[in-house]
């Protein structure tokens, strides 16, 4: 038995996967062999879901059939809306509301739970992916005192979410930008939330349990929660009215961890951040309000030249520019991480199914360092 401790499981191989390939030194990400840059430019989120779950890109007919089936599952049971309303009244965070709702969705799933039936698990995954946007849009409206908007089956996954959020059909730029953001966040190897889902599923718990665990793990600020933190940081910088380089110098001198920087796998700029940088700049130019992009770009330029950051392999990750993109689409800050979750359902379900094809209970061990051979003292004698 190997006794070397791998805290944080850095570089520990626990599974084989054909879903996403990452080269952290070259800044490369591919889903099932297709470069993320090509997928972001050419594909739709529905196509990417198909690719992740079935292994191949669909042809036109297969995509139409898949997208139609997905769209048909968008509505959620009224009991879910009632629960969301209660959570909104209690001012619950959207990520926590999502966690509760995903867990609750299993109650209205029409199929029995049989984790060993992988086709049924995929259908459950598809239902979750279809309903998460409905849950999130309804929650955002309820907490703002508005009625939820019913999903529409004739809109794409991305456009329908923005429609349910605002009650108005988004323009093409917003729908395409959002679709691209969903593609970029859909999968990323054995990240913490995907691994959480796999651990849960490896016990033969069902898809709802695995996805609920994924949402829970994604919420933290070291993982998906960083996108909201980035935008809060930029707003803090804006309010300070300081020069961005002075502000960031001060933050480093105060040992602040800069959200959206650093990654367990990448030592260079995340390829998704490259794409989001361009999108953020483009949206700013189109709207005439480039401030948010400019702040992020100035910080990037400064930190890239600041010795300690490149030395430690710290560069912008996917979260560094996504917040500025969502902000420019008018989305509330605390919806950014739930949107990440909406997209990552694709990866969670894909990895769980892939792992369950040849399932083995995941069970590492800890080195015991506590006291030994202690004499038990009855409670009244302590
Ligand atoms: C979708 C995603 O999950 S992407 C990641 C999103 N999370 C963030 O953006 C939060 C900010 N980033 C971080 O906290 C980290 O970079 C992580 C958690 C993502 C990866 O961390 P790890 O690989 O475990 O690196 P670790 O935390 O050991 O840091 C290594 C060194 O870099 C420093 N470091 C890491 N990230 C940052 C950062 N964002 N800002 C400043 N310093 C940092 C650490 O202080 C440490 O320095 P030291 O060696 O002098 O002590
Ligand atoms: O891979 C990771 O560790 C974090 C993650 O989910 C991502 O970058 O998309």
Automatic annotation (TrEMBL):
Q: In its UniProt entry, what is this protein called?
A: Citrate synthase
Q: Name one GO biological process term.
A: carbohydrate metabolic process
**Which GO molecular-function terms appear in the entry?**
citrate synthase activity
Q: Which family does it belong to?
A: Belongs to the citrate synthase family.
Gene3D superfamilies attached here? Citrate Synthase, domain 1 (1.10.580.10), Cytochrome P450-Terp, domain 2 (1.10.230.10)
Q: Extract one GO cellular component term from the record.
A: cytosol
According to the UniProt record, what class of enzyme is this? transferase
Q: Report which reactions are catalysed by this protein.
A: oxaloacetate + acetyl-CoA + H2O = citrate + CoA + H(+)
- Give me the gene this protein comes from: citZ
